[in-house]
Amino acid sequence: MSSEAREDVPAYAAPDAKAALLAAGVSGTIYSLVMPESEAALLSLVGDRDALLDRYREPWTEKQDAMHNAYFDRWIEWSSPIVRFEAAAFPFRYPTAGASEGIFKLMAEYAGQSLAEGAEPSVHIFEGEYEGYAAYAASLNLRCVRHERARWQEIIEEIDRGAMFWISQPSAIDGNVWPDFESFVALLAAKRPDVAVIPDLTYVGSIARDFTVTLDQSNIPAFVLSHSKPFGGYYHRVGGVFSRTEVSSLFGNKWFKNLLSLAWGTEMMRRHGVFDLPRKYREAQERAAAKIGASLGIGLEAADVMLIGTAPAEYAKTEFLRNTLRGSPGERRIRLCLTPTITDIIASSVAGESS
Questions:
Q1: pTM of the model
Q2: Which domains, ranges and CATH numbers included, belong to the chain?
């Protein structure tokens, strides 16, 4: 099926819109940034031939069953300057192929459980959120309801009973930390404890400035994470789910997992703290935003997330820029991926250092 024919594929992914954006060194789709550090960690693993091969040998000993534990132990430590939660309250930890596998399977189990109980399942998100939430909900025949984030205090009673609310923090809507995240979750816990909130922490590790995300609220049964965006690991497909209770469809992931990708993610966290890489490349991000903004004639600013630039909605005077508008009317902005131009800036810097 072509991208034009799919309702769940955003307009900026259409060939003409994509070509127009790439001509300016930018994209609507958020692509991961493969950094020199990303490649160095991988080469260190594959360069140690014996250690690499030993990961896969003697499966009858079941030594591979526990190999994801080191990844999650490291993630808890690595993320601790940002993510505040009681790790013991989330004892079920599953390695996944990025965040997407966890998103799909958590939705699927929620749907199955709701139907078994005679309830009507539905997924709720804010307008402009990560496209995957709506796409996975559609594949499961789940109703997906979008809300205006600017009205977050008013929508509480509009959410279906027993719904599952997906929310990214830092936010995929505009690439910034949403300052009302904790207040929104607390308000739901107080007034709508029947609604499960599932935070998506895909962008943790992509932001240079200090911030925190608190996950101890009782209405958070699980959360997902990924190293696609922080470490340029999209095609390594490494991420995970932390859950308060067992997720049956993910139980087999202790066997069905990518050992090299988990080792790569663990090694990246060992080498680089949660703020290190976005702080190192913040200047490149700002230079990319300035260059692209000048090319397009818009006031493009570097967002919190190091891959993203945003601009006020009034700059969206062409069709291909209107396609990149994100968020509800009260906070709509142009959101662009800077990865193509940042990649060029980094490559030029590396070439200059080696010459």
A1: 0.92
A2: 3-30+281-354 (no CATH), 43-271 (3.40.640.10)
